[in-house]
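ok, trying the design again with the full structure, not the truncated one.
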């Protein structure tokens, strides 16, 4: 919201500097993001009166313009077609800094000979002053502009660019900001009275209004103004609209925009003569109904959209944009003016459906009180009468099916002290609240009762009144102290945080990059993780989601990580190893979900770069399994990998991570359907670990084992086993023998000389004793025992 200080000065008087105003508003909760000065570069530019215009002797399109500067006069060459005797213009003397009309860059004005005539100055256009892009004609100032006064003093202004929170739609208006400033300064707000003369014809005889559903529109106010004279709006109004970032169009349209900025209530003006049957109906659009808006775009509607219709057709999209079929024009003589209150949820959904966001919808979807509509339509009618020469019909057509009463809030005597620690006299607190628009109702020894102003829909209890008092007084008045509170017991091991930090260091050291994602996801994304299967766990939804992509608490980290991988892979086809260590939320029978700390990692792309002795190799299941083994080994965990049935992973290329019959996590290749859905490589790998379960099995302190001083002895053997036997099972049996220091697999063979359904493991064993050198006989005896145990355990036989 852009707010000019000169406009604010109409309602509140203060000698504060713009910087001080911005600071106090920011500290009161209305953050000023920027301060813009209009005319900061206008040194050497002043108001001048055109006293003579003569043709240039050497150029058909140029003229010699003489201007009166008060104490002096000057004659310059001018090419503007609209300059005329009697005009008040902006005149720049030599040395002034202006925007070059051709290059758009700042330049210093110098004297120049133009077709043989010396021109020591310039009559300025709006572009040269930085007011707009209009370079065709001179700036025409009001006739009452004082000659010789610096243009900065007359036309300059300071704009406060406010970054408002969604709960303060009342400050999307100049009066709303002025009310806040008046309370901060401690002076009354001065709002000009609203009143206008009306004729004998009552508005209810000129227009009939009906609302199909009070839930969609709970108030619709309308007036009719006849004999209006369309044309440009006054210069002061145009200047204020431009300062607020709006383009002046015509006096009728400009008045509706001006009142919207002044009061915060959107309005719309219809050409009354183009309203069929002189009837207005507020209704939902039909499926497939088509309507052309003011921007000449044909839009296909749905029942999500609320319409303003006449007796035959739609004439506007409620709360968003009017229609071209009833647009006011140069021939308009009678105006139907509306101000209504629409259901903000309906306006928000309609705006989202159409992809159309306007200044009106911005205000409606934050919620407006019905009382604002009547006040705004009366103010706009007043301006139409004063500035357009119109005749207002008697009264206001006020259709109000759903009356909204004003709230009452009781403020206990000690509530301010209890919540803030600040002792504020009751009379001072009452004065502050009254400056903000609260109405005093009654007082007792225990409490004071106030009526909440209609524009403050964010106030619901005494804490809100306390906040209003303290933010006006200043948050710096709150004393510093130690908060007193109790915390609920959190069922998380005390050293979990240290263990998480340890895991982060380990996985980052293994070449993974950490990412952070939102805890909220869409149900659709979670469903895409398990193609063809219903969700195993129904996620918890939130009541007021910010968007459809953030409606549910995630039950898995995979969706967020895969989205991150997909976005980054579109920009750079590089190998990716990313992880997130965060919480997932699993619903329980109680109100609160189980918050489970989970480590999830994604791997994709090439595992090794192309080299002279080998080609490119993509990462596979064993890269992911190796990363899991590395992490667990560094934590002192010896895990087993057993086949798993995760619906989101590739069948046969996945495994559960198990320790002592407890599953710690899963590792595997992404299911092809999931990979296509998330637009990632089909070879993408994933692993997940339950952090708390891993910690239960982890050894926090490494155990020292001295190196043996005695030589080792190696033996190779080829074992024929059933196809279903895993190498891990073979290693489990061999590791039970104390003299085996190391076991490694160096070949797997299937084919000739191996029966169908069998495979051959070529295994290298390293034998070593800590206290002596093993003899060949001892090694052979140990090898025979191992073979016997393998034969009885997994049916292994030596390959002949």
């Amino acid at each position: 919201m852009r707010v000019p200080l000169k406009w604010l000065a109409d309602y509140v008087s203060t000698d504060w500097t713009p910087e001080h105003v911005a600071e106090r508003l920011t500290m009161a909760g209305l953050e000023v993001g920027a301060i813009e000065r209009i005319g900061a570069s206008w040194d050497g530019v002043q108001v001048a009166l055109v006293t003579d215009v003569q043709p240039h002797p050497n150029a058909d399109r140029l003229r010699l313009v003489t201007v009166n500067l008060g104490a002096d006069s000057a004659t310059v060459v001018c090419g503007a077609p609209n300059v005329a005797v009697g005009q008040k213009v902006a005149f720049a003397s030599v040395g002034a800094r202006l925007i070059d009309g051709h290059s758009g860059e700042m330049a210093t004005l110098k004297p120049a000979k133009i077709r043989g005539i010396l021109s020591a100055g310039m009559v300025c256009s709006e572009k040269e002053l930085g007011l707009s892009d209009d370079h065709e004609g001179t700036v025409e100032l009001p006739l009452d502009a004082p000659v010789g006064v610096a243009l900065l003093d007359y036309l300059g202004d300071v704009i406060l660019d406010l970054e408002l929170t969604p709960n303060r739609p009342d400050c999307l208006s100049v009066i709303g900001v002025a009310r806040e400033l008046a309370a901060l300064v401690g002076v009354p707000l001065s709002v000009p009275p609203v009143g206008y003369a009306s004729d004998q014809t009552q508005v209810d005889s000129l227009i009939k209004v009906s609302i199909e559903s009070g839930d969609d529109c709970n108030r619709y106010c309308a007036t009719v103004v006849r004999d209006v004279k369309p044309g440009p709006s006054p210069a002061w109004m145009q200047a204020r609209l431009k300062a607020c970032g709006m383009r002046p169009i015509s006096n009728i349209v400009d008045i509706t925009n001006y009142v919207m900025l002044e009061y915060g209530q959107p309005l719309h003006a219809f050409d009354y003569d183009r309203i069929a049957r002189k009837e207005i109906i507020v209704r939902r659009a039909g499926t497939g109904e088509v309507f052309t808006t003011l921007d000449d775009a044909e839009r296909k509607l749905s029942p999500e959209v609320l319409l303003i219709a006449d007796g035959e057709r739609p004439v506007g999209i409620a709360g968003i944009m009017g229609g071209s079929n009833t647009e006011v024009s140069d021939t308009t003589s009678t105006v139907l003016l509306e101000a209504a209150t629409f259901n903000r949820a309906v306006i928000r959904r309609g705006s989202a459906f159409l992809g159309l966001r306007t200044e009106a919808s911005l205000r409606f979807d934050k919620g407006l009180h019905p009382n604002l509509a009547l006040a705004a339509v009366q103010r706009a009618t007043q301006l139409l009468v004063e500035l357009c020469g119109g005749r207002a019909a008697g009264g206001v057509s006020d259709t109000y099916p759903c009356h909204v009463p004003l709230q009452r809030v009781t403020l206990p005597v000690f509530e301010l002290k209890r919540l803030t620690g600040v002792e504020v006299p009751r009379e001072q607190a009452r004065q502050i609240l009254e400056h903000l628009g609260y109405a005093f109702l009654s007082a007792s020894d225990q409490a004071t009762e106030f009526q909440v102003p209609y524009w403050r829909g964010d106030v619901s209890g005494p804490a809100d009144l306390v906040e209003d008092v303290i933010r006006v007084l200043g948050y710096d008045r709150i004393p510093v102290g130690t908060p007193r509170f109790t915390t609920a017991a959190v069922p998380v091991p005390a050293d979990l945080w240290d263990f998480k930090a340890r895991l982060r260091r380990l996985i980052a050291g293994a070449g993974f990059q950490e990412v952070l994602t939102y805890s909220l996801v869409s149900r659709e994304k979670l469903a895409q993780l398990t193609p063809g299967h219903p969700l195993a766990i129904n996620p918890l939804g939130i009541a007021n989601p910010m968007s459809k992509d953030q409606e549910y608490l995630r039950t898995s980290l995979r969706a967020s990580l895969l989205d991150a991988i997909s976005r980054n892979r579109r920009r750079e086809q590089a190998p990716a190893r990313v992880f997130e260590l965060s919480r997932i939320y699993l619903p329980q029978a109680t109100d609160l979900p189980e918050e489970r700390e989970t480590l999830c990692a994604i791997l994709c792309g090439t595992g090794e770069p192309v080299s002279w002795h080998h080609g490119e190799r993509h990462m596979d299941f064993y890269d992911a399994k190796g990363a899991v083994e590395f992490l667990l080994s560094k934590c002192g965990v010896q895990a087993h990998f057993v086949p798993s049935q995760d619906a989101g992973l590739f069948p046969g290329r996945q495994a559960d991570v198990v320790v002592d019959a407890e599953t710690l996590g899963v590792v595997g290749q992404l299911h092809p359907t999931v990979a296509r859905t998330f637009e990632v490589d089909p070879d993408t790998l994933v692993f997940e670990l339950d952090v708390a379960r891993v910690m239960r099995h982890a050894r926090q302190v490494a155990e020292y084992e001295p190196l043996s001083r005695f030589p080792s002895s190696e033996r190779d053997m080829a074992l024929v086993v059933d196809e279903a036997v895993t190498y891990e099972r073979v290693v489990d049996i061999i590791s039970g023998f104390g003299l085996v220091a190391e076991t490694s697999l160096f070949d797997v063979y299937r084919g000739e000389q191996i029966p169908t359904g069998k495979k051959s493991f070529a295994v290298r064993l390293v034998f070593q004793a800590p206290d002596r050198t093993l003899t060949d006989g001892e090694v052979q005896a140990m090898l025979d025992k191992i073979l016997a145990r393998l034969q009885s355990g997994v049916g292994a036989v030596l390959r002949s």
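Keeping the full-length input from now on. The chain has a mean pLDDT of 91.
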